[in-house]
Amino acid sequence: MSSILDLVGNTPLVEIKHLNPNPNVKLFGKLEGQNIGGSVKDRPAANMIKKAMERGELKPGMKLVEATSGNTGIALAMIASALDIEIELIMPEHATAERIKTMQAYGAKVILTPSSASMEGAIDLAREKAATGEYLMLNQFGNEDNFMAHYHSTGPEIWKDTQGKVTHFVSAMGTTGTIMGVSKYLKEQNENIQIVGTQPTEGSRIPGIRRWPKEYLPTIFDPTRVDRIIDVSQEDATTMAKQLAKEESIFSGMSSGGAAIAALQLAREIEEGVIVFIVCDRGDRYLSSSLFEK
């Protein structure tokens, strides 16, 4: 008999056949929307809470507080509900209704901050609450348990499912936990594997991908673990998310579209190889937005 935590991870790879421009390149999307909570963030959420409990940092009766753009909040709310832990989640008010309602369905208290303050405003409020001593802030942006979740699960899964043939790994960069953990694992297996991150172009707003101001750059981010960063525009990420759904039957959000754009660019540049990119969540989290409008 499985618990909710047992159902995190072991997501499938699916080959991209129609959009792949190079017959000598194998291109795969890792479908993280197949996690029990619907996104790649299930992995760090489960690991951060579990490790905080093991270390005694999260004491019985203590509340959690976290700033989130959406998927981490949903994952934390789900895990907290399973473990009977109270949680407050702080996010910018421009978050989609699906995200907010899903967190609330799991029993979380959701606090919305002004869109003008972006994620930085949500982070500041979470820090203020944590400073009172009534809450534990997991701080996904500076918590090693975030990227170690991917070191112990996502990375090994990719290595195993490609039979060690992966040559390039592509991920959107938000908290940077996914790319940090997968890079650490894959580079230990083969230092020649290329790790590629995506970030928005100046002025673009893509949920799940950030261009961080220097003072808010996640402290878990180590630039030496990323071989290349590709900028992606909001327009291109939106268009690609629609193409993934229509041409590859992969229903996902804009950040996945951004990762796919970078992966396709790589496929055009190299002679041969095996590219894996992260499809970080499901498209049904964006139905109230304009993402899939014609």
Automatic annotation (TrEMBL):
EC supergroup of this enzyme: transferase
Keyword annotations of the record: Pyridoxal phosphate
Keyword Ribosomal protein: no
Cofactor: pyridoxal 5'-phosphate
UniProt-listed Enzyme Commission number(s): 2.5.1.47
Catalytic activity line of the entry: O-acetyl-L-serine + hydrogen sulfide = L-cysteine + acetate
Entries under Pfam families matching the protein: PALP
Cited InterPro entries: Cys_synth, Cys_Synth/Cystath_Beta-Synth, CysM, TrpB-like_PALP, TrpB-like_PALP_sf
UniProt keyword annotation of DNA repair present: no
Tryptophan synthase beta chain-like PALP domain segment(s): 5-281
Protein's name in the database: cysteine synthase
The species this protein was found in: Algivirga pacifica
Record lineage: Bacteria, Pseudomonadati, Bacteroidota, Cytophagia, Cytophagales
Gene transcribed to yield this protein: cysM
